[in-house]
Amino acid sequence: MSDQTISTTTDGFNPATITESGNSASTNSLTGKPKNGLPGLKHWIYDLRSGIMVAMISLPFSMGIAITSGAPPVCGVISSIIAGFILPIAGGSYVTISGPAAGLAPALFSGIIALATAEVGKDVAAGKSTAELLEIGYPLVLVAIAIAGVLQTILARFKVARLSAIFPAAAIEGMLAAIGMLIIVKQLPLLLGTTFEAHEFWEILAEAPRRFSEANGAVLATGLSCTAALFILNALPFKLFKVVPPPVWVFIGGAITAQLTFGIDPMYCIQIPENPLQNGMQMPDFGRIIFAPSTWTALGYLVLVLILIDATESLATIMAVDKLDPYKRRSDPDQTLQSMGICNTASSIVGGLTIIPGIVKSTANIIGGGRTLWANFFNAVTLIVFMSLGRGLINQVPLAVLAAILIFIGWKLCGPKVWKHISNIGPEQLGVFLLTIVVTVSTDLLIGIAVGVFVKLLINMSLIRLANRISGINGKRGFFSHFLGLFRNPVGNREFQNGVCELTFDRPLHCFNLLHVIREMQSVHDNTKTLRLHFAPLSNVIDHTSVETILHYVQEYKLKGVEVELVGWDRFVPLSEHDDAVRFGPAEKLSERQSQQADESGGV
């Protein structure tokens, strides 16, 4: 997944703007790389300082994401606390800060409604308010989170984390943009201070004009002013906003201003119960699920969605954070997936939400000088202090302030910069991106990503067939063999001699065989001085996701001092001016043996 994709999951931060100088220790002065686990405690003072700062970001984010997910605000904070106590020991990454995920909020909200409706029946559900359905469904969605966590842990043992590479980047970015739109639309009730009857994207938009006439003026003014403040502060080039991002300032300033100016009624404010870490906890209700077969289909579907999105976002985030780590450590994707699984199961047992690494908090951790996952622990301890001693102040914060923060997050996921980035890569990527968005907001996340993958499959097959026809390859096998060929290892030869590692690609490169490419690139001999990548004539198409991945590894090996040569790369013609554009390079003339090989393999 591209850096642009990662940056759009932030809340005002662009990780690409953060350099090593932002950390309290530069790479040149580092002696030894900090380790996780108990050895990491030797760096406790750095992680303590950073953890306290990160908690200022975690508090509003966690509560806002919880509300968007249809859960009580305290449940989001519980998730961050659970992550803080487990991750320093479970490991997987090094400087990521984990907690509830904005990307999963729409799925959780829909899942709660779906499970509640499945249990009580559609007729009964139609007569209940959204708040009542959320109350009924939340203990059931905790069961889904617990099961998803267990399955994540099991899948990690089978080293499946890298399977996420087969998802096209354009489809993933389309999914994230759709999530951003869903997040924004879901904030309308809080922004207006009214209750909506609709639960789905288009229905909420249709109901919005009627609800605007019923809006609470003070609540709406608070929400709109905080939203405007977020965009203004984000545009200002002050370094202070990189250390403590605009949402934190708006959370504090918006709450104070709203109460002094409008005197917002407590019913429109956050409501944290007394002794929140005890009274706010809920337990997953396995009994209700077991004795209600009508919920099983909705439960299984939600579990699948949670695993897919959790894994995809988690792995994308750790890749982005690894690039910012001044110690240049590399996270273990499978260990990270296992850690997230353990955290999710533990979080659900005490009423918390799903947990994934967050790019904003992780970036703030690096800037603040955090060195290990123990920063998560100190973040959790600070959150406990906030919740225990600052409940009265937190309960003065209007929900409209949290809505403004979530609208800002959603905009970062689906704003014009994202569309411009995708359109610059190529019209075929924009098509996949747009179709994924439309299907996702109209149905759900799983169907949306499935449609995006299918469309990308058709595009790749069409490009390969076109390249084959230009090269005079007819392909004697049928559609099914052609389809299966997409998933075969494109590396036809690998050699290592005298410090030179040579890999020869003799098939088209695309997201559906990218897993093989990643494995080959990660298996390059440690003593390699020169890495030579050969693009044979039969390797006639390289899709956007593969171009992105190859260039990523080229840069990574160059940073290690390895000379990289791309033999045959010049024959490819990019389909746009973007560096990551699809490369189209049909061979003008194949040898007789190459033609025979291509015909027998179906051209792929």
Write the layout of secondary structure elements.
Blueprint: H1 3-7, H2 44-68, H3 73-90, E1 97-99, H4 105-120, H5 122-126, H6 130-157, H7 169-186, H8 188-192, H9 201-212, H10 217-235, H11 240-243, H12 246-261, H13 276-279, H14 286-290, H15 296-324, H16 333-349, E2 356-358, H17 359-367, H18 374-389, H19 391-394, H20 399-414, H21 416-425, H22 427-442, H23 445-470, H24 479-485, E3 491-497, E4 500-505, H25 514-522, E5 530-535, E6 541-542, H26 544-559, E7 563-567, E8 573-574, E9 583-584, H27 592-601
Parallel strand pairs: 4-5, 5-7
Antiparallel strand pairs: 1-2, 3-4, 6-9, 8-9
Helix pairs in contact: 2-3, 2-17, 2-18, 2-20, 3-16, 3-18, 4-6, 4-15, 6-15, 6-16, 7-20, 7-22, 7-23, 10-12, 10-20, 12-20, 15-16, 15-17, 21-22, 22-23, 25-26
The share of residues in helices is: 55-70%
Give a quick account of the main beta sheet: strands, pairing sense, barrel closure. Answer: 4 strands, mixed
Rg over C-alpha atoms, rounded to the nearest angstrom: 25 Å
| End-to-end Cα distance | 24 Å
Oligomer: single chain
Beta-strand percent range: 5-15%
Major sheet strand order: 3-4-5-7
The secondary structure category is mainly alpha
Per DSSP E runs of 2 or more residues, the count of β-strands stands at: 9
Give the domain tally.
Answer: 2
How many DSSP helices? 27
Overall pLDDT score:
87
Morphology call: globular
Uncertain stretches of 5 or more adjacent residues: 1-31
Q: How would you describe this structure to a colleague?
A:
This is Bicarbonate transporter BicA. InterPro entries: SLC26A/SulP_dom, SLC26A/SulP_fam. It is a multi-pass membrane protein. There is one protein chain. The protein is mainly α and 604 residues long. Helix 2 (44-68) packs across helix 20 and helix 6 (130-157) runs antiparallel to helix 16 (333-349). The two termini are 24 Å apart. It folds into 2 domains: 3-27 and 44-420, no CATH class; 426-604, STAS domain (Transcription Regulator spoIIAA, 2-Layer Sandwich). The chain is globular and about 80 Å long. It contains 27 helices and 9 strands.
